[in-house]
C-alpha cells in the first residue's frame, strides 16, 4: 500500500491518484472477506470431509487403537504369560491388579461373558434372586409376620403386635475351574483365547452351581434348596418347607395324579403364587406331561412362542436336571416364588492364574469366583413328597 501511494504521488494527477487509492482499498476489503469465508468453511468441515480431503493418507494412520490397555495386557498374559503390563497397570474401577493370593482379575469383557453365559444356563439362577456383593457374606432380614393392623378412631388407637423378623446370613464360597489349552494353540493369532476361556469357565461353573443350589450341603459350597428342614403341609412351622403328598409311594396316584399337583399349587400362599413356577427335571416332566385332569384335558401346555417355557396348570415350568427323579421318599417337584424363597449371592470379580508347568506341554488356567446361596423364606416354596 505504501508503494502504491508513492507511485501515485510521482507525477500522477490528483483525481487519478484518488481513484487508484480507492480501488486498492476495495481490493484489500475483498481479499479480507474471501479469507474469512475460507476460514469459516474450513472450520465447518466434518471428519468425513477431512478424510476425503486427505485420501493419500494411509487409512490406518487415522484410526485409534481399538483394544484398551488392560485388555491387551490380559491377552498377553493369557497367550505368553507376560504379566509385566498387568503388574504395572492401575485402572480406576474395573481394573486388573495383582492379587495377594496369586492370579489377576480377568478383563471386564471376559467377566461379563461368563456372567451372561451363567444366566443363560437352565438352573435355579434363572428364577432365584441374584445379588452382587463385595463382602464375604450377605445378610438379609426376612419379615416372618406378626405385624398386625387395627382400626383407629379420633380418640383411640388399636395396639398391634410386634413384627417377627429373622436374620438370614448367606456366606460366599470359592468356586474354581481349570480349563487347559496347548501353547501352540495360544500362539495362533487367529485363536480368540478370551472367548474360548470364558466359554470353558462358564460351562464348568454352571454345572457346579446348578448342583449346589439344589443339593449342596453348605460346607465350602452353597446350601441347596432340598437340604433345608421340611415337614408335612399343615404341620410345618414358619422355618420349615411344606411337603405335599403325591398320593402314592414313589409315584403319582394312578387314578387322579393331577389332583396332587393342584394341591401343591394351592398349598402355596396367594401372595407368592403370582410369581410362582414349577421346578423339576426332564424325567419328571415327561411323566407329568402325560397327565390329564378329570375332564380328560392335559394339564401340561406347550409354549406358543420360541424361547418361552412350557406351562403346568398355568404356571411356567423350569427344567433343572439336578432335581431328583420320582422315587420313594424323593422330593422331585418344587413349586414356589423362588425369587422370594432362594437367594444367590456372588462377587462380581473373576480371577485367572496361568500355570504352564503342571500339565506340560499344556497351559492350565485356574479361574476362581466367589458365590453362595441359601433359603431366605421357607413360606415361598412347597415340595411334593413321593413318600
Describe what you observe in this structure:
- By secondary structure, this protein is α+β, with helices and mostly antiparallel strands.
- 33% of the residues lie in helices and 22% in strands.
- Helix 6 (108-120) packs across helix 8 (193-215).
- The longest helix has 30 residues, at 14-43.
- It is elongated, with a radius of gyration of 36 Å.
- The model is unreliable at 56-67 and 90-101 (pLDDT under 50).
State the major sheet: 8 strands, mixed
CATH topology of the largest domain: Major capsid protein gp5 fold
Which radius of gyration do the C-alpha atoms yield?
Answer: 36 Å
Please give the domain count.
2
Mean pLDDT: 80
At CATH level 2, the architecture of the largest domain is 2-Layer Sandwich
In the CATH scheme, the class of the largest domain would be: Alpha Beta
Structure characteristics:
single chain, 387 residues, alpha+beta, 2 domains, 8-stranded mixed β-sheet, 7-stranded mixed β-sheet, 12 helices, elongated
Topology:
Blueprint: H1 2-8, H2 14-43, H3 47-53, H4 69-80, H5 84-88, E1 104-105, H6 108-120, E2 129-132, E3 137-143, E4 165-171, E5 173-177, E6 180-182, H7 183-187, H8 193-215, E7 230-232, E8 241-245, E9 247-248, E10 251-252, H9 258-267, H10 270-273, E11 277-280, H11 282-289, E12 300-301, E13 311-312, E14 315-319, E15 333-336, H12 338-341, E16 342-346, E17 351-355, E18 362-375, E19 381-385
Parallel strand pairs: 2-16, 7-8, 8-19, 11-14
Antiparallel strand pairs: 1-17, 3-4, 5-18, 6-18, 9-10, 11-15, 12-13, 13-14, 15-19, 16-18, 17-18
Helix pairs in contact: 6-8
Amino acid at each position: 500500500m505504501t508503494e502504491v501511494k508513492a507511485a501515485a504521488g510521482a507525477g500522477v494527477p490528483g483525481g487519478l491518484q484518488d481513484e487508484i487509492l480507492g480501488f486498492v482499498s476495495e481490493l484489500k476489503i475483498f481479499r479480507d472477506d474471501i479469507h474469512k469465508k475460507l476460514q469459516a468453511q474450513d472450520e465447518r468441515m466434518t471428519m468425513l470431509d477431512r478424510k476425503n480431503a486427505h485420501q493419500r493418507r494411509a487409512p490406518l494412520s487415522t484410526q485409534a487403537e481399538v483394544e484398551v490397555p488392560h485388555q491387551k495386557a490380559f491377552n498377553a498374559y493369557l497367550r505368553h504369560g507376560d504379566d509385566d503390563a498387568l503388574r504395572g497397570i492401575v485402572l480406576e474401577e474395573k481394573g486388573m491388579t495383582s492379587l495377594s493370593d496369586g492370579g489377576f482379575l480377568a478383563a471386564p469383557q471376559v467377566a461379563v461373558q461368563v456372567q451372561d453365559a451363567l444366566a443363560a444356563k437352565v438352573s435355579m439362577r434363572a428364577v432365584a434372586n441374584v445379588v452382587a456383593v463385595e463382602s464375604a457374606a450377605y445378610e438379609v432380614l426376612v419379615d416372618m409376620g406378626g405385624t398386625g393392623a387395627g382400626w383407629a378412631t379420633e380418640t383411640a388407637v388399636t395396639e398391634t403386635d410386634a413384627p417377627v423378623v429373622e436374620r438370614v446370613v448367606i456366606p460366599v464360597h470359592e468356586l474354581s475351574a481349570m480349563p487347559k489349552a496347548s501353547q501352540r494353540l495360544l500362539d495362533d493369532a487367529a485363536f480368540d483365547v478370551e472367548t474360548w476361556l470364558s466359554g470353558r469357565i462358564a460351562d464348568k461353573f454352571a454345572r457346579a452351581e446348578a448342583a449346589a443350589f439344589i443339593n449342596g450341603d453348605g460346607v465350602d459350597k452353597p446350601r441347596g434348596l432340598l437340604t433345608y428342614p421340611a415337614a408335612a403341609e399343615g404341620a410345618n412351622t414358619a422355618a420349615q418347607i411344606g411337603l405335599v403328598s403325591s398320593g402314592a409311594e414313589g409315584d403319582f396316584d394312578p387314578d387322579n395324579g393331577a389332583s396332587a399337583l393342584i394341591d401343591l399349587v394351592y398349598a402355596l400362599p396367594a401372595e407368592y403364587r403370582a410369581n410362582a413356577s414349577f421346578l423339576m427335571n426332564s424325567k419328571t416332566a415327561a411323566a407329568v406331561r402325560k397327565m390329564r385332569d378329570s375332564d380328560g384335558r392335559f394339564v401340561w401346555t406347550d409354549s406358543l412362542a420360541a424361547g418361552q417355557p412350557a406351562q403346568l396348570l398355568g404356571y411356567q415350568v423350569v427344567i433343572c436336571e439336578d432335581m431328583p427323579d420320582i422315587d420313594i421318599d424323593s422330593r422331585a417337584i418344587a413349586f414356589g416364588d423362588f425369587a422370594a424363597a432362594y437367594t444367590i449371592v456372588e462377587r462380581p470379580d473373576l480371577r485367572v492364574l496361568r500355570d504352564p508347568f503342571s500339565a506340560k506341554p499344556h497351559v492350565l488356567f485356574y479361574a476362581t469366583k466367589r458365590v453362595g446361596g441359601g433359603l431366605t423364606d421357607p413360606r415361598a416354596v412347597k415340595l411334593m413328597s413321593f413318600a
